[in-house]
Specification:
- The strands form 6 sheets. The chain has a 6-stranded mixed beta sheet with strand order 2-11-13-12-14-20, with helices on both faces.
- Helix 1 packs across helix 10.
- Helix 6 links the parallel strand 6 and strand 7.
- It is globular.
- It is built from 18 helices and 20 strands.
- The chain is an alpha/beta fold and 584 residues long.
- It has 3 domains: 294 residues, Aminopeptidase (3-Layer(aba) Sandwich); 202 residues, 3-Layer(bba) Sandwich (Glucose Oxidase, domain 1), CATH 3.50.30.30; 53 residues, no CATH class.
- Belongs to the peptidase M28 family. M28B subfamily.
- One of its GO terms (molecular function) is carboxypeptidase activity.
- Keywords: Membrane, Transmembrane, Transmembrane helix.
- This is N-acetylated-alpha-linked acidic dipeptidase 2-like.
Amino acid sequence: MERAWVDDGPSGRIQIYEKTTHDIHHVVTQRHLILGGCTIAVVASLIGLCAGYFAHTEHSSCVRGRSVALFAVYDENPQVKEKILKLVDQDHFSHNIEVFNKQPYDDQAIVDVIRSEWRKSKLEEIMREPFTNPVAQQGDQPNTVQIIYANGTQSETRLEMSKEQYAFVAFTINRTIQGNLTYASKLDRRDFHYLLKENVGNGTILLARYGVVPLREQITHAYTLGAIGVLLYMDPLDYATDYNEHALPRVCAPHLGQQHDIIAHEHEFALDDYPNLASHVDFFDLPIQIISGNFARKLLAELDTEAKLKTDAAPVPARMRGGFQNVSYASGSSTSFTIRLTTHNKVTAENLTNVVGVIRGRVEPDRYVIVGAGRDPWSPSSLGGMAILQGLVHVFSQLVSDSWRPRRSIVFVSFAAEHMNSAGLNHLLRSRMNMLRGRAVAYIDVTNPVLGTSSILATGSPLLSQALYNASSLVMSANSNSMDPKGAPSLYSEWLQNFPQQKPMKSAADIFKAAQDATRLVGTAGAVEDFLLEPNNFGPNGTRGLFNNYLHSAVLAHQPTIRLLDHTDGFSPFLTQAGIPVIQ
């Protein structure tokens, strides 16, 4: 049988959010498992819609003929959606987390487990795609941050990396710097203009809150201010759930405009798979270091103590203050102490492996719906994504064993080195660009599935917005207070409740009137309000039709917010480089 997933050659962008960006992978609770199950259900429904088997409308008015592909006009199987939702199992999700959590922090060991699990699921094609890539590691000596007081005394904090956490920002430049300390809050555009107006920051080391603003934006502002270095910490105001004052931020390392937070510089080697690193990354001559919230509180307390001795000292504006108790978040730079930062990071060439599994499509096997999750042997934050990916493999392999098959091929990919420039994802794109541009239908990213507890919040391409809405409306919510119009708790209604987006009714009315003038498919309703009251007003053949479906969606006054795709997102190269619609 011809392979569905072929090599490159010539050929004709759901995660669950609270209103925070806190990564809470360190503590897996029962509620997180439930939310993980909900995520699997939403993504599974979304894959089914994208794969096309039950995505088309009914064709009862069509006469099937030999000149038309049979599966292009066969009616959908309504049982498939119910089967998908029934096959989603919270216990299986929990089992997947346990399986991956037991593995040593070794990429090859994780690859072996993934391949073994996929063989059990009887995927039709399972492939290893090895490659070599730069990987940042802690140097031979630990990074250090010292407080040096005016009287000469010092307080030193040694930042060493364990297998459970990084203690450095990957690919940051190595250097020893010493300078006064300035609190910079989130270091977003407004904070940048405030610091610029106050004429502080130049020649100092900035202390910034991590996780609210993309690191690339923060470092760009720091560089423009003339700072000589940056310290990053997690502030309790930004991480209200499971805040750990001793934890270090999980700073990842992407480039090419991805938001896995890297400031890269030219390395002293080139690799076959990575020939021109320096030409692809931005160079900022700034050492960057992460510190714990506990250490950041100590630094802020030192600034407060100094500010009390100044007659003209004042705290920063209220919007720039963080969540530490008994800390005033003083403005200005330190004068009674300086900070000395020394970094000893290194970059080595590592052998990495992507794992690809395929469920072959029945009608269009050479068209792909790609579902991917990054993993990283240096980080436990990848466990949720790997568990979700394995759960999806289990669900769809079960459907295949029950004689179901998607219209298009479903490709599952476990990407290597997620926290190292999304290395596996970029390798896949580089090695199969022509094939992906011509054959991929959509990419669905499940790398970080659970980041909070309140609601889902999706990022995606406009082409897939309606598919997201449809998939989320099929899944029941874990929160009983999120009810749809029929009184059922759905993820769609929860999403709409937490992140509503209002559209101007004048625009909706204009769309409705133009549609009435152009066609009779809408019906004879005289006002847009009447049409909205009858969302299931089907036509004479029992179907509403794609046009009416679109129209009803277009004139809704409120819809859930889909976060606009940012070119700094780690999975954005699927859209920006290959033109493939993306959902996360």
